[in-house]
Amino acid sequence: MSKILMVEDIAVDIGKLNILKGVSLAVENGVTALLGRNSAGKTVTLNTVMGYWPVRRGRIEFLGASLVGLPTHRIARQGIVYVPPRGVFHDLSVELNLSLAIGSRAYRARREYVFSILTELKDILKMPAGCLSGGQQQIVAMARALFHGPRLLLLDEPSRGLAPVIIQRIGAVIREMARQMPILLVEQNFTLASELARDFYILDDGRTVYAGTIAELAADDELKRRYLAIG
After folding, report:
1. How far apart are CA 90 and CA 87, in angstroms?
2. pTM across the whole model
3. Bridge partners of 22?
């Protein structure tokens, strides 16, 4: 399969700190999980792909073209969408959250498709996003990404702080989204990640230390204990 996203040996400094010291990964179709303990460099990796942090060393390519040095707005125009945890504008209604960034014409064109996946949106459109539950906010954040029609989705800890029943719904949405676009998923909830992803990469101290299939990782208790604090 062709690689949608290629990240090769990137190093990133933030201030005087060397945060990423050698991250490599590849995204094909479906869901690819980026795993590791807190502060391993997972979110910084997503932000670097989006151009938020400059690359000191290494390569980032999307569909064969380099992203290194491009500003964030040009990367976004290529179809890469980043979704932070509960990334909503709290003071705006749900409908404004969904339509503001893409314009009314694009909103109308994609509305039926997005609402067919996220039927619960219809009941909360006029509500301020800040009044929603954490799970509802995450649904809105993912819906806004769908309205952009992404070619690649960077999804950052969508289950953070949510109840198990809500996590099940979030998982179902991600599974449906993965039929339409490749997803690079950062997730601390290994159960959710293992249900969604085919391939994984583990970061530790800003480096890629292991990669393989989720099935292989699920069977390796020592690897999960050492790098994910599981078991």
Report:
1. 9
2. 0.95
3. 207
How many degrees, rounded to 5, is the angle at CA 185 between CA 98 and CA 34?
155
Alpha carbons 61 and 192: distance in angstroms, whole number: 28
107 token code pair: 């909103």
Q: What is the CA radius of gyration of the chain?
A: 17
The Cα–Cα gap between 196 and 174 comes to 8
| Per-residue model confidence as pLDDT tens digits over 96-153 | 999 987 888 888 999 999 999 999 999 999 999 999 999 999 999 999 999 999 999 9
CA-to-CA separations, 90 to 127, 143, 169, 180, in angstroms, rounded: 10, 15, 22, 28
- The one-letter amino acid code at 33 reads A
The candidate with the shortest Cα–Cα distance to 56, out of 5, 7, 10, 25, is: 10
**30, 190, 200, 225 from 210: Cα distances, Å:** 19, 15, 8, 13
DSSP state of 205: T
| Residue corresponding to tokens 């070619």 | 151
Total Cβ atoms within 10 A of residue 15: 6
pLDDT tier at 2, thresholds 50, 70, 90: low
Question: Domains in the chain, ordered, with CATH?
Answer: 5-85+150-228 (3.40.50.300)
